[in-house]
Amino acid sequence: MGSLAISVENLGKKYRLGGLSSGYSTIRETLTDAFLSPLRRLRALGRGQGAIEAADTFWALRNVSFDVNHGEVVGIIGRNGAGKTTLLKVLSRVTTPTEGWAKLFGRVGSLLEVGVGFHQELTGRENVYLSGAIMGMKKREIDRKFDEILAFSGVEDFIDTPVKRYSSGMYTRLAFSVAAHMEPEILIVDEVLAVGDMAFQEKCLGKMSDVAKAGRTVLFVSHNMSAISQLCPTSILLEEGRIKYRGPSPETIGRYINLMQNTKFSQFDRRQDRRGNGVLRVKRLYLEDESGRELDVVPCGGKVRLVLEYAGADPQKTLSEVAVHILVANGATRLFSLLSDVSGGLFQNLPPTGRFVCNLDRLPLMPGNYDLHFLVFAGRQLADKIFFAWPLVVGDGDFFGTGRLSNNRDIHGSLLVPHAWTLDADRRGQEDGGEDYR
User: What is 4-20+56-260's CATH number?
Assistant: First the structure.
């Protein structure tokens, strides 16, 4: 503890936008281009075209500086496109920086993409050794951990089957299990909890917690604010490739949520992780009270409406048999679902644009930060799906009408259930002169 594990100074990474490859160049063409490029830039400046570079380049990272000591667990959060993954790729030596530098002191393990190094024609057993070797594990180390890797993955019965016959879930579980059982001094992790089903995500979160408690240095990127707050005492907020804030995770998460809530909802159009055939897309998701006023924070036990504005792909076509599912989660734990087809039936003859509105008379959640996921089905086909679509912030409220509420979710859980207590006293005790308990 105390000594530097990671030191980053004025780190920047620039990409060229929309560049078209012109194929391979000859040595003569390469040398000629190198000689003429400065002259072209001078001519462009003379013509007032100095902004040309800005028009066709993009800085994914700019002026990023921070230090991480050995044994620290630091979260990295931010919107899609903020530069989180680019930062981890630079630190993992997957790509080189355009400017600045980064130094890492110790053996580095990177979990940037689950399944790197797997070969479809090889068996699960063979891929464990192949992937482990690519990640820097020695054969005797893989031998020692093989049974543990296998037990964690849950694919024991298929370990000698080629992975091309695995389901996507089996493939993911085995790949993560290999990566999660490395023992580096510095572990760099990019959104591993976004893979697999909910049960396996919880298992991954437990493994990440064990890694953190073992005293290793960890950089952890995630959209899962519950996992960040649980694993990371401090966090870094990235926005447009720059560090916007670094501090204790609760405060950093609060700033991130405020940033998200103050952003126009056009971000859905930029999401690369959305799924579905696109015959209908959710354009906006927000919360409002009974009067239609948009809410940043919903009081515990308060009445709230969840609104999804949608647009059909074909304005001339009406859609039928539409169902909307909203999933409310606390990190990897799904708390409850709001299903339009179960509670009311399928929507029929939808206009080209409109709003789906889900009414909750009493929000049954303890104060804290939660995640909203949504799925929309049209004609029994998935039309649109975004997980971690929006943060749900629940504030203090008087759920039970007593003015009292426990805010300790770790002890009492996240859900609130209406209930009442009575006392059935022992009547024999009262007949003998006992105390009246009413």
Answer: 3.40.50.300
